[in-house]
Amino acid sequence: MEREQIPPLTSIDRISNQVIWKGCGYSDHDLGRPIIGIANAFSDMVPGHTNLRELARQVKYGIYRAGGVPAEFGVIACCDGLAGGHGGNNYVLPSRDNIADSIEIIASAHRLDGLVLLGSCDKIVPGMLMAAARLDLPCIFVAGGGMLSGPDCCGQEKPDTTSVSEAMGRMQVGELTEGEVLRIADLCAPTCGSCQFMGTANSMCCMAEAMGMSLPGSALIPAVYNERLRAAFASGERAVQMVREGLTARKILTQKAIENGIMLMMAVGGSSNTVIHACALAHELDIDARKVINAFDRYSGEVPLLAKINPATHQYDAADLYQAGGVPEVMRRMTGKLHLDQFTVTGRTVGENLESAPLPQAPMPDLIRTMDNPHSTLGGLSILRGNLAPDTAVSKPAAILPEARRFTGKAICFDSEDACTAAIEARRVKPGHVVVIRYEGPRGGPGMKELYKPMKTLCGQGLAACTALITDGRFSGTNSGCFVGHISPEAAAGGPIALVEDGDEITIDVMEKTLTLHVEDEELARRRASWIYRPKPAGGYLKRYASMASSADRGGVLLTPDEAESERSGMDERTD
Known about the structure:
20 helices, globular, eight-stranded mixed beta sheet, alpha/beta
């Protein structure tokens, strides 16, 4: 795709621009240096971002040290946890594309020379990376760092920000009192930082590092460590150097770089959301999303699970993984698979970075294992296909008990997360049920809600190993149990998940990568003939998003009218 080139400034434009910069307090001396934008997603409402003001200050020091001039601007940041309930969560995935748009607008309109992207959490990180790919400026990503876990409490080892949802399920079956649930709530988020597990936030920060967009070893530094400040300072310095070297984002973000990120996600049991975000990033790079989906599928059989942290186990969390060597140590264990020749923000290749990376602070051989002694021979993520997911679905074997990786049960269907949550609280979900939550995809949500609460509540009720949950929505990286998300086509697009009825038999086979609805084609055709889709009421941004969003297997990105019509036509052909 031909990318529009911004013409150089005329002398009159340059003088006019200098007047405006001087109005902001800059000097003539400043305006002769590289101007580095700092896209800062600071927020008082997102624990992973409350420390970003201090990190931005360190970035500025680094930019000045290297001879550049910092120019900070704000970026919105939605928290999946805070957005839950009353439709708030519907906005979180759509915010990703708004973030990419806003960074593009500021960087292009103000003709910045480079960017430092400062964020931590679920949709902010991919939105920033999408902007970097779109702009093709020198860009470096700086993570805000992870939260420390709470102390062991009420039988919960290393409680995290989602432990309360599980505790509520335990309270519903009489295992905990309300006071004990409140005690867990008091202790489970003791510091600022992104959530303590391998959720979307930490997964995307790790993926950014593996793709070469962050300084080596920086992704998992806890938010409250001084090393996090030093990494921010060094990133500011490096941003200026990248401008002088002409090292732009598209020289780093290639298909092979994305594959390096995918392989890391397999090795650490990354969030299922990394699939939709990798597809969205590919869209910005003019790479077919199907190549990304196929890469996830291929590497799930080639790269085993090497590092096992929450939610795959409560023994270790993201801070432990950092102490054990973090992303560099995991990548060192899989050098035979990686594309070592890919360039990174350091100006060196992945292979060169790994050769010079420091040794772990506290080696933990049972946390990060070797390729010949993995936690599981099955990669951390899995792409499923079948008559219930013709265009794929996503599961996370790393967080599924081995005995639940093949599950057959009877469907119990809900047309929204709220209806499902009420049924779980009323104890209507029983062992042997496959919970089906539909009309929560990008178009149907609209916005593709994150459905971690139903699964966490089922876990709390002791049903994690004897029930399953499938959806056209998405999951948090904190979920464990037998679950499948991102089912495509979604129900709102007429996908087969819309035709499932209570009592239908469904088989989830993560080992064979299949998702099967045991209903004859003739019966499905009869149901389709009487199927009617009634969109949920939506206004403002969600209305626009619903009309323009692609399917989950294409990244849930905003399409042009022609692209949207082409996708719908393709769906019509598959369902005729």
